[in-house]
Amino acid sequence: MHFFRINNNKLSSAGETELVGFDKTNPMYIPDGYLENGEFVVMRTCHGIGDWCIISGIPRLLKDKYPNCKVYVPSSKMLKDVFGDMMNNWGYGLYDASRVTEDIFKNNPYVDKFVDYVEGEVYHDHYRIYDSTNSKIPLTTQMLKFWQFTDGELSDTTPDIYFSDDEIKFGKELLGNIKNYGYIGVSSTYGSTADTELLVDKIKEYDNIVWMYYGEVPIEDTNLNFIKNTINIKEKGLSLRQQMYLRCNAKVNVGNESGTTLWCSKYSDTHVLGNKTYGPLHGANLNGKPRKDPFKTGNFVDGINYMN
After folding, report:
1. What are the phi and psi torsion angles at 83 (to 5°)?
2. Is residue 182 within 8 Å of residue 152, measured between CB atoms?
3. Would you say 125 and 143 are in contact if contact means Cβ atoms under 8 Å apart?
4. pTM over 0.85
5. 10-residue stretch averages of pLDDT, the chain, 308 residues long
6. For 128, what's the count of Cα atoms within 13 Å in the CB-facing half-sphere?
């Protein structure tokens, strides 16, 4: 894989590597001069909802360690300018992947600005310190280790989301008198990459609650058709953040591995069905093959109850 470099809004390859980042046995760190300057950019080179939501706690943690710093996030324009046609790899359906940072960081009090251009070097997710003996380390931790954070400064790396007053008002009106409910979110890979009976068993632990369901196929056509008290969320045409308000206020979230499920871990009891095999979205060369180390790329999230 390429180790990317971003400098003056230009993407280039710094060379091929088996695994991006630096092993903790031979680490490299962000330059002291960059930290002293105090203007930081949070950046990823992958642009799915899950890719960005799992590092959404970074602005908060940067402000905790460096209270006087400025934290910037790339705008839709910057993502398009830097990554060009690569952005098409993460769009799906009607969703424009260049909007992902605005959806993830909207209303975030720790983000100072969405920026269209960054002069100089951007230290993104390839700049991380990993432990080759332990893949269950959140990407936020790995990235901020490169930013010279200590373990004590990384006590809460769970994803963040901050709702506006209008979003809260809309969510409360939508919920009405519904208080005790669960949320099921299953993506297009549900049933093809993992043992779904684990998810079924988890749902059966919760009696007498309403279940909100978001899936690519009607719930009646899945092995979840035994659930009677359900609300179909997809047909309501909600925005991503409106869906997330419902998820974050649910008693429990269950689903297969998807960005919107990973985003809930701070706010709701969250259970994720881990993928045992690769799906078609991972490419034809990987589709159907076992995932021997699913967290090797850094997608482990604290606070998630993984069902494997």
Report:
1. -100, -15
2. no
3. yes
4. yes
5. 94 91 96 97 96 97 97 98 93 84 98 98 98 96 98 96 98 95 89 83 92 94 93 95 97 92 95 73 57 83 92
6. 28
